[in-house]
Sequence to fold (177 residues):
Amino acid sequence: MATNREIEDVEGLVAPLLHARGLDLYDVELAGTVLRVLVEGPRGVDLAVLGEVSGEISFALDRADPIPGRYTLEVSSPGLERPLRRPSHFAAAVGTRVRLKTRAGAPGERRVEGEVAAADDEGVTVDVGSERCRLAYDQIERAQVVFDWGPPPRQGRSGGAASRRGSRGPRGKANAT
Fold:
C-alpha cells in the first residue's frame, strides 16, 4: 500500500501537467495494484482528453518512479457518483445527496444517506430525513455522491420496457410491425 508521501509525490507530478491543459486533479488513490488518477475539467473530460493526459502522466511517473513496485495506471473522470475522500470534496458537495458508510465502531447507523448540509476541516453534517447527522472524517470508511437517474422507463402495452414499433431486427434492418 502506498504511503501518504508517495501519493503526495504523485499528486505533485500530475497536478501541474493537468493545470497546463486547464484540467484539475480530483484525487489519487492506490487500490491494490491500481493507481487511480481522477481528472476533472470545467466542462467535464472526454475519452480523447483522458487518453492524451494518460500518456503524459504515465511518462512522468515512469521518469520519477514515485511508487515502488508494479502498478497499473488508470486515468478517468470522477464520474457522476464521484467518491468523496477529502474535506474539499465534501465542501463541494454541499446541497448534494450522498451515501456514506461509517467505520466499524463509529456511533450511530453504519450506512447514512442524505444531503450534505455543511462541511469543514473536521467533518461533515448530513441531513437525513428530518435529522442532522454529524460525522468526523475519520469515522467515514467510504462516501460518494448519489446521482438521481430519474424515473424508470414507462412500460409498454406488451409489458416490456420498449415497444416493438421501430425496433431493429437482424443486421440493423427495421422491423415492420
